[in-house]
Q: What sequence folds into this?
């Protein structure tokens, strides 16, 4: 396999994509990265300020579902790899309106696959999620063989995209790899997801809206461990294969909430149990043995350390949070939490 010199990353202005770009540029002095991002509410150029003037980095503002733009970019780009992070990524928003999820996550992926196939790109990596497997009971783990059973419009759109990648590999011998990761946490995460939302609310002495009992379980992984996994899959992975990544760090939402409050020295009275998320998946837990044995990768950041560092990061980056928590964010917050928090 040819070494990767030029890489197209989509959705690189988001939480995980921006970390991936920064780590790739840091680790590979000869790497060039083009970042195609639509700059939705979740895309933030501030996340890439440290590489913005690096001559090896180029930003293109655009939509992965724009067939003309993507065809030209990939057709003329000379890319050795395409890595697709671009997505609508929040379950709660998909329950309010699934339209953008189908458009970006499904149609956008199809457009990227067609253009990559046409240009004979030698590696295509689809960044997917463990949520495509549905929900677990109190025991057991998701493996790469677990049947897909998505429960939210978000996870259904990600599963649809995964099935398209699978079909292109099967039908056209397309060099597609799918990675499915558990819940990420770390710096630069948009404060609509559990951990950054609760940190920023607690810092502002605002209530922490725990859905239902708070006993739902997620398997947390630090964003840098996920990014190292994607790198390993590009290096050592095989076309047509799926690789699961997880942190082996299962926690209930209430455990996370109490840990955050403890580190922040804030009172438990900030916790407010609110109406549950419709169709709320009970438990996610990943068996990542395949990635560990075949990709020479393992999760490394201990959860307590990673969480402490993440809290410190949010404490030190108040202006980053402030820029986000205005305008559209306030509208979303009121729609999602207004009646929940006032009842
Ligand atoms: P994010 O919401 O922080 O970022 C998404 C990025 O995609 C933004 O920069 C946004 O502007 C861009 N984007 C959205 N629609 C686009 C379009 N049509 N064209 C071009 N760009 C577009 O998401 P994230 O948390 O960084 O997640 C990245 C990927 O990882 C997603 O595919 C997500 O499904 C997957 N994933 C996330 C997690 C997690 O815990 N966050 C876990 C597993 C997998
Ligand atoms: P989230 O960060 O939205 O990730 P996902 O739904 O993709 O797992 O939510 C993580 C868990 O936290 C999930 O069980 C839902 C719960 N949650 C709350 O209890 N309150 C909230 O305000 C949010 C955003 C999430």
A:
């Amino acid at each position: 396999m040819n070494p990767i010199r030029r890489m197209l990353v989509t959705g690189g202005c988001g939480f995980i994509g921006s970390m991936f770009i920064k780590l790739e540029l840091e680790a590979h002095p000869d790497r060039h990265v083009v970042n195609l991002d639509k700059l939705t509410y979740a895309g933030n150029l501030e996340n890439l300020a440290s590489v913005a003037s690096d001559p090896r980095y180029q930003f293109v503002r655009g939509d992965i579902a724009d067939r003309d733009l993507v065809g030209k970019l990939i057709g003329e780009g000379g890319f050795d790899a395409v890595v697709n992070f671009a997505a609508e990524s929040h379950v709660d928003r998909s329950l309010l309106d699934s339209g953008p999820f189908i458009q970006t996550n499904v149609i956008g992926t199809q457009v990227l696959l067609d253009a990559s196939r046409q240009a004979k790109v030698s590696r295509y990596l689809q960044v997917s999620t463990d949520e495509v497997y549905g929900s677990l009971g109190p025991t057991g783990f998701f493996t790469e063989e677990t049947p897909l059973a998505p429960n939210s419009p978000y996870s259904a759109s990600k599963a649809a995209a995964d099935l398209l990648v699978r079909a292109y590999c099967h039908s056209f011998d397309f060099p597609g790899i799918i990675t499915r990761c558990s819940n990420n946490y770390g710096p630069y995460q948009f404060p609509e997801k559990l951990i950054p939302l609760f940190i920023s609310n607690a810092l502002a002495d605002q209530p922490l809206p725990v859905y239902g009992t708070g006993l739902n379980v997620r398997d947390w992984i630090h964003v840098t461990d996920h990014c190292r996994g994607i790198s390993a899959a590009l290096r050592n992975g095989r076309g047509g294969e799926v690789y699961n990544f997880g942190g082996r760090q299962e926690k209930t939402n209430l455990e996370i909430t109490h840990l955050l409050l403890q580190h922040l020295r804030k009172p438990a009275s900030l916790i407010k149990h609110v109406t549950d998320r419709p169709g709320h998946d009970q438990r996610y837990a990943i068996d990542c043995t395949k990635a560990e044995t075949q990709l020479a990768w393992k999760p490394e950041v201990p959860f307590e350390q990673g969480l402490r560092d993440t809290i410190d990061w949010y404490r030190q980056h108040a202006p980053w949070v402030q820029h986000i928590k205005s305008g559209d964010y306030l509208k979303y917050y009121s729609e999602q939490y207004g009646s929940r928090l006032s009842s």
